[in-house]
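quick one if you have a minute, typing this from the bus. below you get a single protein, a line of residues and a line of whole numbers that encode the local backbone shape. could you go over both lines and see whether the tokens make sense for that sequence. anything you notice is useful, everything is just below.
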Amino acid sequence: MNIPVNKEKSAAAAASLSRDRTQNPRAYWAAAFRNVRGETEARSALLSPEDQQIQSMPDASPTKWHRAHTTWFFETFLLGPHAPRYKTFDERFAFLFNSYYVAAGPRHARPKRGLITRPTAQEVSEYRAHVDNAVAALIEGADDAMIATLAPIIEIGLHHEQQHQELLITDILYAFTQNPTYPAYDSKWRWPRIEGGAGYADIPAGIHSIGHDLDTFYFDNEKPVHRVLIEPVRIARSLVTNAEWIEFIKDGGYQKPALWLSDAWMQIQTEDWRAPGHWIERDGEWFSMTLAGLRPINPDLPVCHVSYYEADAFARWAGKHLPTEMEWEVAARAGLIDDAFGIVWQWTRSAYAPYPGYRATSDALGEYNGKFMINQMVLRGSSLATPDHHARVTYRNFFYPPARWQFTGLRLADYI
């Protein structure tokens, strides 16, 4: 469930995959499809049918819905247009499991996904098997020209499913946090190893290029490559820890309006925030709901489940600020931050907006990113729930400022 820490082994595996993709594309895409689809099932296998049904808030979705929606994606965008003999599993599922693709047709209201008790989790498993078999047959029977047409759709579908694999984990953890028995998703789960360095590193000032510049997969919001000006600034080598956050709490950080943006202050008053999400105080001691259940706060671990509002207030309290996404990318490319990936997504102070020259495509898949470029903030890196081979230095995650049910943390920056 974590980003591989053996960089040499990961690089070798990537090189092998690249060769297979070029020399035997049918085998490559068949294997890639099986692996990603299998990871979704492995993550959901620890959950009961009752677990898979729950929707704990409008922003979260049931596990069963994630499994069905990612299947609908391949049925709609791959099999429908390119497999003439494919028989739709159930015509009703297009309405139930479309998410926000307006061009693909009407959809069930997002806050009501937890009310869909039928189809059952078992029927969703049958739906997945039906589509998986059809995709496998489509790939096997494709000639060179057809596989070249199918490959980009399969690839974005797999990366889309990997996004939902992470959401599957964060959504069920939020649901378990609402349960007073604090059940464990996986009692054997442990935090990944933390490799952050001490102090701050100077980010090279000047004009830099950012954006995806390799011949590998990217989402459209990572393009085009463009130049940015970086002023003299330092970035923390390590993530903000629980110990530092506890000092913020003890110093009355949640009670000082001068530290908070106006909307943020209204949010914490309305929601009565006194600590990060998933934190619970018992007899003066702090605990956190983790994938292994409720555990005492480890002061040495990075703080997690904080919103942009909280990250911004903490930075102000510390006399620092959050890095921009441009500063973060330049620093990560230069190897200045060791714990950039596989632990927590890191809030930046950058609003989610299109890069200069960005154009969304005109088809239904063009709705994937561009339509959300308003009122959200960018996070960089990846988290402990991000699937292997899904993270990259140009990846732009984004959430609304109050969101904190994801594995989100922060690192600080300071102008020189």
